[in-house]
Amino acid sequence: MGNVNLDERTKKVLYAVVESYIEKPEPVGSRYIMKKYGFDVCSATIRNIMSDLEDEGFLYQPHTSAGRLPTDKAYRFYVDYIFEQCLKNQSEEIKKYIESLTKKLRKLRNNMNSLFLETTNSLSSVTRYLGLALLPETDKTALHRVDFIKFKEDYVIAVVVNDKGIVKNKIIKAYPEITQQELNKLAEFLNETYQGKAIDEIREDLFIRLKREKLFWDKLIEKILKICQQALYFTRENVYISGFYNIMHLPDFSSDIEKLREIAKTIQDRHLLIKLFDSISEEEEIKIIIGEENPMEEFRNLSIIASPYREKNKPLGLIALVGPKRMDYTKAIMFVREFANLLTNTLSK
Questions:
Q1: What is the Rg, in whole angstroms, of the alpha carbon atoms belonging to the chain?
Q2: pLDDT of 215 above 50
Q3: Which fold has domain 89-137+236-348?
């Protein structure tokens, strides 16, 4: 429960308020809590506890005569309260769903684009939130093959394929004298020397070669090695997003067009999403960020549940759900964890 210093009855009342509001987005009253959760005290006692929780910053009243609503602090308490149980349990419904999806994803494992589209679509469909996935960072994957194609007088197209089947094309400024035959030999050198090695390690080795060759060879060698280096520099940009249509129909957003516009604008900005993902550690099994805890202002009206997927214990990327703070955290945590495990198993095979 983190640093929350509450007695057991108060914790149960706070849990009941948050869970009730997640189920039905209306202010929660003490009488409703007493009846639904079978508290053995009168509604006045529960009302006093809720008032104390309001003083502590866990609840607030939209207006004087209304029930109470949870704050970000209350959601954090709730998530910490249920977290261990979520990790231990897997419902029969989730188990069956994952089993059926496993067969589908295995058929797509040689096509990364289709694999991640299907994964985010399925995650969003089953939870009704935004499903997001960050593809493996190209630098951390292994080189499968590279080809160079002369383009115009002083440009070269580099076609790089990694071990995940992801193809990257780059246009590189080159010296005009280089021929297609020389480019073919250069590609042959890279493929024979570096196939199967991590792209960031190849770049480092090329850098060392470049410094060494400069001492013994002419400028031509330097130019050729620089072409190799440039071909293997990549920006991180592959983010898959599914489910905007699903969140449009959630009560949290359906009546607030301005909120929907803000979300649409935010998720269209790939650089912003990558910055968000980069702020989430790939070392943790699962990460939950609620409202104001978000390091980025654009996401402070939302909650994010993210988990790394791996290949042979090496983190490759992240899969996440983004939704309202009033999300079904139990279901969301379980599905994100299972989808991350599913991706891990699919990629490892």
A1: 26
A2: no
A3: Beta-Lactamase (3.30.450)
